Amino acid sequence: MFKPVYRFIGKPAALSAFCLALVMSGCQDNMDEKNQLEVEDLIAFSNGDLIPGQYIVVLNESGISFRKDGSYEEVQAGMRKDASNLLAKYRISGENLREVYGSTLDGFAATLTQAEFDQIKSDPNVKYVEQDRFVALAPPPGRGPGGGGGATGQTVPYGITRVGGHANYTGNNVAYVLDTGIELDHEDLNVDASKGFNAFTSGRDGNSLTDGNGHGTHVAGTIAAIDNNIGVVGVAAGAPVVPIKVLDSRGSGSYSGVIAGVNFVGANGKAGDVANMSLGGPVSQALDDAVLAASNKGIWFVLAAGNESRDANLSSPARVNGTYIYTISAMDSNDRFASFSNWGNPPVDWCAPGVGINSTWISNSYRSISGTSMAAPHVAGIRLLGNVRQDGNVQNDPDGTPDKIAVR
Predict the structure, then answer these.
(1) Hey, what's the signal peptide range on this chain (predicted)?
(2) Residue 137 confidence (pLDDT)
């Protein structure tokens, strides 16, 4: 069941992001789904979800002094200088400055006292300030974060079949996976770490983009596991998957770190690329603004609706709407709406398989888990291959407007 999180794991400044989903309740009619059901848990939010003294500061255009048409590194340097100058204006040490953003969100994260917060939020160059938050991903029920068995021969997961089967990817775009990283040497994945980003700067997770948890590797496999006669196959088989590590090996993170990942994708991605965000939490205007801005560059953002059995409009970034944004709910192998899935039209655009999904896992292995985290990457893979089409509607959608089932 749920429990609050009251401690930081690792260095607070490096914390970044969150994973989705809620413990599944109720019985499944399908015996196979009973055996496979493992839902990634979102630790319940409580008073402990606010990071004490840490804030995300978003600036007006008047607060920017640098040109934004430079490289990612140049823009980051320009924002760091402007942020430092703003802090210095109120005699706040530059050591308080954390992440900076300039490509999708004009702003930065910083640690502030209450008095400093009051000064910063009243500055005419500041648009708004919100307190940073952190959440943690629990391991699947009954198992730690280890593997779930190696490959003995390739199988096609039912979800891949339901969305129209797989195709070997031959395009020039990539799939950015904003998650716990991706196992870099998994034999069933084409990982491009050269394009990756790490929100962590120290410790185990700061040393590598590889996945110490499993969740990001699972997402990557559904998008693009290779058609190679072993393990599983993804929708856009063999497509390059890029680790954007915003969750640590224990599944811990913060909004400020996730925004840093979105900012990086927005700066370095190109039109036609896909960014999968199987993560979410309470409403965050800063996170929503960053996702929308990055998507407006022609990068497709595929967002998990969340697994709290509630209106997806209560969750970020699931609630964001945009031309290049899809929010995805989950269904089972019988096209029935998953009891854990969030709902709502808008923001939900498509429904995809998310119950008992088999995919790649760490330690060069495979595992079946459930959640809208697992539904979203089906659509991310479809989007890499081309347009998303409809094949019927999901059954028993609790909002009364059945979501469209996504196929390629």
Answers:
(1) 1-21
(2) 60
